[in-house]
Specification:
CATH topology of the largest domain: FAD/NAD(P)-binding domain
Number of strands: 20
Low-confidence stretches: none
Largest sheet: 7 strands, mixed
Distance between the termini: 15 Å
Mean pLDDT: 96
Length: 430
């Protein structure tokens, strides 16, 4: 019988294993680490349960809604988003472009005037017609909204200027309100939900690891601590650092696409190697904090667009589920974007970001910090520059010739969420 080898026990790999099991296919799933979950894992520290940043379920597909409900059963919260933006010393609702109310009058005026100018002065072209993300922002939202939120926030997150990015990734991720919505949100505190993440699901207990563990419990053929050292295309074998190897008829990989290219041996064309080297991504430092005080904020996450702040976003784990933190405490994740090649003192970055939590009002005093742990996501967000699409296609076309499917946020080299990872895992077995 044909054997499928699955590399990686994050959500995409676990979904592939689960659906292979459901279809009675012969498969083996190998994970480099000692636990499943990939980036969707959780750790426990002194009574606090931390994820590797915020991982929230935004499910539209009825099949995956049903699957997650079955997997988590009564261990599931359904929450309406309570997200805000902290800028100009004020908290305003997310998204910025539809919620200017509460900002200084001169900022509101500037954003409205520039939005109206863009609204009436530009042809409503499809997103794909705009050469850069900066062009799209200026044409769709105006320079004012760009200047006060879209440019600084996105450049802190992606770590590259908006003019270096294309619009391939936009899809549903940047809400585009109409003229009425923008004006309503400028003159009143409107509570209308915008965007793909107006509500979300999250486990009541165990952090996002609970979902990964529930999937893994239905995937018996998992081997942990199996790090891939080489994928031999000629022999159709995966070789592991411990000396073991596994033959495949079909290979499903969830490792980062650039890493996959590096591990290929055999007849690999130069253009594939070059394409792999052109793939760009940022890195993110996640500062997980457990602090005294259970009444610090009722928000789920807070955006920090101003360049004076080190982090681009702060999330509140304990507001996803009170089981994630002891009584009378709050748990946070603080996200800092950076590039591996930057000459920066990461410890100093982290310390500055933590001190700014006091300035913002999310921690009363540095002395209130009970737990502090830093997690590095070396490959965090795929950067959609002008070489992204062509480079990715060259690699994917080559992999297809060798019965290799690369899936997941990093395997498919895309900006996507957990539902897409589950879907790609299911579809990878075709």
């Amino acid at each position: 019988m044909a054997k499928t080898i699955i590399i990686g026990a994050g959500l995409a790999g676990l979904s592939a294993g689960y659906h292979a099991e459901q279809r009675h296919l012969e498969y083996e799933l190998y994970e480099a680490d000692a636990v499943v979950g990939g980036c969707c894992r959780s750790v426990e520290r002194d009574g606090f349960r931390f994820d590797y940043s915020g991982h929230l379920l935004h499910l539209k597909d009825p099949y995956f809604q049903g699957l997650v409900k079955e997997l988590l059963a009564d261990n599931l919260n359904v929450l309406n988003r309570n997200a805000v933006i902290y800028s100009h010393g004020a908290l305003t609702r997310y998204p910025f472009q539809a919620n200017l109310f509460g900002l200084p009058p001169e900022v509101v005026k500037e954003c409205l005037l520039e939005f109206v100018k863009a609204y009436h002065g530009n042809e409503d072209l499809p997103t794909r017609e705009y050469r850069t993300f900066r062009d799209w922002i200026a044409a769709k939202l105006g320079e004012g909204i760009g200047r006060h939120f879209m440019f600084p926030y996105n450049e802190k997150l992606w770590t590259v200027p908006a003019e270096e990015m294309t619009c391939e990734w936009l899809s549903e991720y940047v809400p585009k309100p109409n003229l009425e919505d923008v004006f309503n949100g400028a003159f009143e505190d409107q509570s209308k939900g915008f965007g793909y993440n107006a509500s979300f699901w999250y486990p009541r207990r165990g952090g996002i690891q609970a979902l990964c563990d529930a999937l893994a419990a239905r995937v018996p053929n998992i081997e942990l601590n199996r790090s891939v050292s080489e994928i031999d295309l000629a022999a159709r074998k995966v070789r592991f650092s411990g000396g073991q190897n596994a033959s495949f008829t079909r290979l499903v990989s969830t490792m980062p696409l650039n890493t996959l290219v590096e591990k290929l041996t055999g007849p690999v064309p130069a253009e594939v190697r070059i394409a792999g080297a052109r793939l760009r991504h940022n890195s993110v430092l996640i500062v997980n904090l457990g602090v005294k005080g259970g009444d610090l904020t009722d928000k789920h996450w807070i955006y920090l667009p101003e360049r004076k702040f080190t982090a681009y976003r702060v999330g509140v784990y304990s507001n996803f589920s009170d089981a994630l933190a002891p009584a009378d405490t709050t748990s946070y994740y603080v996200e800092i974007g950076y590039q591996q090649g930057w000459n920066v003192d990461r410890d100093a970055l982290v310390q500055k970001a933590v001190e700014e939590m006091v300035e913002i009002g999310l921690i009363r005093s540095l002395d209130d910090i009970l737990v502090r742990e830093v997690v590095e996501l070396a490959c965090a967000y795929v950067i959609y520059d002008r070489q992204h699409g062509e480079s990715r296609k060259i690699i994917m076309d080559f992999l297809e010739q060798h019965d290799i499917v690369s899936i997941g946020r990093y395997g498919n080299w895309e900006y996507s969420g957990m539902e897409e990872a589950l879907l790609q895992g299911k579809n990878s077995l075709c």
